[in-house]
């Protein structure tokens, strides 16, 4: 694969993936991104111009998508509206981008016979009880809770249907919660880090007992590349790094690493329909494709992420007050 179209390549995980491709392969990348509030040109600035190209455009626009797909050897599809809280305030962009956008890409890869990898989330499986011994696997039934996760679930089902009905050469991955550089500060970990840097207190929804399964975004990138290269067409692979933590533990670790008392946080209004626990069993990916995560120590991954936000205040500072004002309206 010499030429890869990466949708959403100016977002958090997409931009980290573009860096991974440039650093560890000789493929060239075209990023298709319409630069929503969640995008960051800086995240891909500085990459070699002969390897990486940015096209500003909408994945739901067939006239934009078709010629780019025609030129690509493979499409890796990250573009999405990705934040649950936003989907509760206004679901409409989620329906357009996550469903119509994915449909538009699928029609283009069908026309051109292009390899397609669809990046999805563990949230399509709904949630687990805290004491459930089970984790999500590739055969767990879909049961999404929010407008975000239901549109991602719908997009996965479109991909499966295009594989079966039209023979599209696609794979799907469902990954757990990512952390690392360039994550938008509306999301949990960067919100709390930048709160502390800004002299504000971290905010935990509800009792803070919900569990997320954390993976460094660099490990997500290497997993997606392994699936693109060696995954079996039509298959789904779950991506996770055995990183289950309660939200309270995450905040206490951040406070500790930043030299603050570990109880210096506030409990705030819970998220409606808040999923209790996500947990990934990534045995299939590890045994079939030989993938393993590199960031296995969450505390040191978190420390490096804190350092990144400390060193890159110019990147997050302009949006901080507006993000916090939106959360304040919701009592969060
Ligand atoms: P993000 O919100 O940081 O980035 C999304 C990117 O998509 C942005 O650059 C945005 O401009 C672009 N985009 C949005 N709508 C578009 C459109 N209509 N046309 C073109 N570009 C558009 O998201 P993220 O956290 O990097 O997530 C990337 C993907 O990974 C998503 O598909 C998400 O569902 C999935 N995922 C995320 C996580 C996580 O923890 N963040 C975990 C598992 C899976
Ligand atoms: O599981 C994968 C998913 O992880 C991805 O599909 C989504 O794109 C990504 O946003 C993420 O979804 P979550 O809803 O789990 O992530 P978020 O960062 O919004 O919240 C993580 C947890 O922290 C969740 O239990 C809600 C809680 N939370 C969040 C914020 C922003 C707080 O307690 N306080 C906060 O201020």
TrEMBL record:
It catalyses: dTDP-alpha-D-glucose = dTDP-4-dehydro-6-deoxy-alpha-D-glucose + H2O. This is dTDP-glucose 4,6-dehydratase. Keywords: Lyase, NAD. Its EC number is 4.2.1.46. The lineage of its organism: Bacteria, Bacillati, Actinomycetota, Actinomycetes, Propionibacteriales. Its cofactor is NAD(+). GO terms for molecular function: dTDP-glucose 4,6-dehydratase activity. Belongs to the NAD(P)-dependent epimerase/dehydratase family. dTDP-glucose dehydratase subfamily. It holds the Pfam family GDP_Man_Dehyd. GO terms for biological process: nucleotide-sugar metabolic process. It comes from Mumia zhuanghuii. Gene3D superfamilies: NAD(P)-binding Rossmann-like Domain, UDP-galactose 4-epimerase, domain 1. It is an enzyme of class 4 (lyase).
């Amino acid at each position: 694969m010499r030429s890869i179209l990466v949708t959403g390549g100016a977002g958090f995980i997409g931009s980290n993936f573009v860096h991974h491709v440039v650093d560890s392969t000789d493929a060239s990348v075209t990023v298709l991104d319409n630069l929503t509030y969640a995008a960051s040109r800086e995240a891909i600035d500085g990459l070699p111009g002969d390897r990486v190209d940015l096209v500003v455009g909408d994945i739901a626009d067939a006239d934009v998508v078709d010629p780019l797909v025609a030129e690509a050897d493979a499409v890796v599809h990250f573009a999405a509206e990705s934040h649950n809280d936003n989907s509760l305030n206004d679901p409409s962009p989620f329906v357009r981008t996550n469903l119509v956008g994915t449909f538009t890409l699928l029609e283009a890869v069908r026309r051109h016979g292009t390899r397609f990898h669809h990046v999805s989330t563990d949230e399509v499986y709904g949630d687990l009880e805290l004491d459930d011994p089970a984790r999500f696997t590739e055969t767990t039934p879909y049961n999404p809770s929010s407008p975000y996760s239901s549109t991602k679930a719908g997009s996965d089902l479109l991909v499966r249907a295009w594989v079966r009905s039209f023979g599209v050469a696609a794979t799907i991955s469902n990954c757990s919660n990512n952390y690392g550089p360039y994550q938008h500060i509306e999301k949990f970990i960067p919100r709390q880090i930048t709160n502390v840097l800004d002299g504000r207190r971290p905010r935990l929804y509800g009792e803070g007992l919900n569990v997320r399964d954390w993976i460094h975004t660099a490990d997500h990138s290497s997993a997606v590349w392994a699936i693109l290269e060696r995954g079996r067409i039509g298959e789904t692979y779950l991506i996770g790094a055995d990183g289950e933590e309660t939200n309270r533990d995450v905040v206490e670790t951040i406070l500790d690493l930043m030299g603050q008392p570990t109880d210096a946080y506030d409990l705030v209004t819970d998220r409606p329909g808040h999923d209790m626990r996500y947990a990934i069993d990534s045995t299939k990916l590890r045994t079939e494709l030989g993938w393993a995560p590199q960031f296995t120590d969450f505390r040191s991954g978190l420390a490096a992420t804190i350092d990144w936000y400390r060193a890159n205040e110019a990147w997050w500072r302009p949006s901080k007050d507006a993000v916090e004002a939106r959360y304040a309206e919701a009592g969060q």
